[in-house]
Design goal:
Elements: H1 11-33, E1 45-46, H2 47-54, H3 58-66, E2 74-75, E3 81-83, H4 85-98, H5 103-106, E4 117-122, H6 130-143, E5 148-152, H7 158-162, H8 177-181, E6 195-196, E7 202-205, H9 213-222, H10 235-241, E8 249-253, H11 260-268, E9 271-276, H12 280-302, E10 311-316, H13 324-337, H14 350-357, H15 372-396
Parallel strand pairs: 4-8, 4-9, 5-7, 5-8, 9-10
Antiparallel strand pairs: 1-3, 2-3, 6-7
Bound molecules: adenosine-5'-triphosphate (ATP) and magnesium ion.
The site of adenosine-5'-triphosphate has 19 residues, from helix 6 and helix 14.
């Protein structure tokens, strides 16, 4: 309350006060929903799921368990065997070693001569499902045996939150990707800002509001007051190169803006997925995005760099196939861009939304947590999208 009735509260004070009220409320909501002692953890996987993920027959898994070979599964109350994802990966290694000629089937990691895949998920339209797409892709890849690095380039840090790293609570100063890019003595090697996650096979570089510093810093550096070094748009690519031996695929979740960091992501990416919700306003906004992106890439090219992506695809997200206007826009995109629009779409589903509210992907839900049919439809759609992206990856490795 202000003491002087005639003068309204200063706007800065009002906004800061509102932010304080909200963040306090969010904090207590979060503490109720995710008590700090309840660290995020990953569910375990039933024998039939493990069999599907690894192509090891169920009967083989059962025999192994009876004979005490390989990782020992836990038993549920109903005596069913369940495996932790770490154990699934152990099985993969065992089978790949035992059957070298089929090793790729069990352990699909990249081999000598296959380049690190860096997949940028981009569109400056907010809410086009960039983060949802990123998190589902990371989880899917890890479940299928790839080594994944998820990078949160968004100061909103929704991807970090999905991985259990709450931006204001769990991510401290100089612990984001900014630390590896900054132009002062506080720069850190990228390896120091990578953290393991509860999802075996996925490491994370978290984001928080600090990431925005980069957007303020680059103009200063460009105007010559800061230290030089790699051209700014090369920085992210260079940083990733330092840890590339440890990963098969990097997934870059970008903010809904076309700033210096997004440009760095576009440059670092070997493949791009532009998420688009099939609605007129979203497509209009994407058209602006593409124009600006084209201009910016030309600036990079004028600086002497070349930019060729292994693939560049549009992914239709939050798709309601029964909505007539959406169907028209989806058809228009396919007509215009043909095979550059991924065939599978991510259908709009309350399962995705509900899982997202609990900061989880569909892959983390226990069977039965959400209506069976709703869950199945959503998961089939997400699986198809991710399988199509894996196909692009395999193709650019020259595997198919
Ligand atoms: N297939 C889907 N079905 C239902 N809801 C979805 C689906 N995909 C995304 N959403 C919901 O839409 C909202 C926006 O999604 P998301 O955060 O992934 O978008 P974004 O592009 O990352 O947004 P921003 O631009 O703010 O980073 C979220 O609430 C998410 O749960
Ligand atoms: Mg996002």
């Amino acid at each position: 309350m202000t003491s002087n009735r005639s003068a309204p509260e200063l706007s800065s004070a009002r906004i800061v006060r509102h932010a304080g009220i909200l963040s306090g409320q969010l904090q207590s909501l979060r503490e109720r929903m995710y008590p700090p002692e309840a660290q995020k953890s990953l569910r375990s996987f039933m024998t039939n799921e493990v069999s599907r993920l690894t192509s090891i027959p169920e009967s083989t898994l059962k025999t192994m368990s009876l004979e005490g070979k390989g990782p020992a599964p836990a038993r549920l109350d109903n005596n069913h065997r369940v495996y932790a994802l770490d154990q699934v990966n152990e099985l993969r290694e065992m089978f790949a070693n035992a059957k070298p000629q089929e090793a790729l089937r069990f352990l699909p990691r990249r081999r000598k001569g296959e380049h690190l895949q860096v997949i940028g998920i981009a569109n400056f339209k907010g809410g086009s499902a960039k983060t949802t797409t990123s998190v589902h892709l990371c989880h899917y890849l890890a479940l299928h045996g790839y080594r994944v690095l998820a990078v949160d380039l968004d100061p909103q840090a929704s991807l970090s939150a999905m991985f259990g790293a709450q931006p204001e609570m769990d991510v401290g100063e100089n612990e984001t990707i900014y630390a590896a890019l900054r132009h002062d003595e506080n720069r850190r090697p990228i390896s120091e800002v990578i953290r393991r996650t509860y999802f075996a096979g996925v490491d994370l570089i978290p984001g928080n509001i600090e990431v925005m510093e980069y957007e303020h810093e680059i103009p200063r550096v460009l105007s010559g007051s800061g230290k030089g070094g790699a051209l700014f748009f090369e920085q992210l690519r260079e940083a990733l190169r330092q840890v590339e031996d440890q990963y098969d695929i990097v997934v870059l979740d970008t903010p809904p803006s076309l700033g210096f960091l997004t440009l760095g992501a576009i440059y670092a990416a070997t493949g791009l997925i532009v998420t688009v919700h099939p609605a007129m306003l979203d497509v209009a906004s994407m058209s602006q995005f593409l124009l600006m992106m084209g201009d910016l890439i030309r600036v990079i090219e004028n600086a002497g760099a070349t930019l060729r992506h292994d693939f560049f695809h549009y992914l239709i997200t939050r798709h309601n196939p029964h909505d007539q206007p959406q169907a028209q826009i989806a058809a228009m995109l396919r007509h215009l861009f043909a095979e550059e629009v991924l065939v599978p779409t991510a259908i709009e589903s309350t399962a995705v939304e509900a899982a997202g509210l609990a900061k989880r992907s569909l892959y983390e839900l226990e069977p039965g947590e959400i209506g069976r049919d709703t869950y199945r439809r959503a998961k089939e759609s997400m699986d198809a999208v991710n399988a199509a992206i894996v196909e692009l990856i395999r193709k650019s490795w020259g595997r198919t």
